[in-house]
Structure prediction request, 269 residues.
Amino acid sequence: MPEGHTIHRLAEQHRRTFGGEVVRAESPQGRFAAGARQIDGRVLRETDAHGKHLLLGFDDDRWLHVHLGIYGRYAFGPAPAPAPTGVVRLRLSNAEEYADLRGPNTCELLDPAEKKALHDRLGPDPLRADADPELAWRRIGRSRTSIGVLLMDQSVVAGVGNIYRAEALFRQGVDPSRPGRDLAHTQWAAIWADLVELMADGVRAGRIDTVRPEHTPEAMGRPPRVDGHGGEVYVYRRAGMPCLLCGCEVRAGVLAGRNLFWCPRCQGG
Prediction:
């Protein structure tokens, strides 16, 4: 599932491509035909993102809400748009470009009140200027649930996925099984600051890189990571390999139904 930096990049790409212009909308698949008719010929006024939710605001105060889920994908291309291939839930287009949406978990129209309700049920997003990390801390600091689970709860912190969870906890030396209430506030502040920095880097680069300069392949004289997710990381998908810092074997397990990666030495016991 795409993590929050990808959604913020999509919001920016929609703004650059369609912002301030009349947009044509259609649903070749047919599942969003009624919604497409409502926004067809409207001006895309603004774009927004909160966590893993993409929001496109039109000039009639309606918002297109997209959650990609596991299988959702966007494809952009130059006009004229080719005949749709595969299952295209929604196609947006103008005179210069088009964007095809396939396989989203959610594709719906919201009114302003419904959009506000969506924001209200999500936790603070490290990539949003209005994010308040203290809102997350109020839940984390009194919870018996492990910090590894809490970071993946979108109502606690929005936008963090499996990679950022594993890497931020490693970088701060925090055992993912530690209950939230056993975390010091200073540790939470450091985790949040790390998420802000790492996810902003992800927006700029379009990939997730989490290793510090002294641990890059060039600095360490090691081969670069080869993985479909790209990017240089400390523990994510490195189970059984030596930790880049201490040489201990990176561990893997399952926590709340999601794969978890950590270093037992660098992150305590």
In short: The longest helix spans residues 185-205.
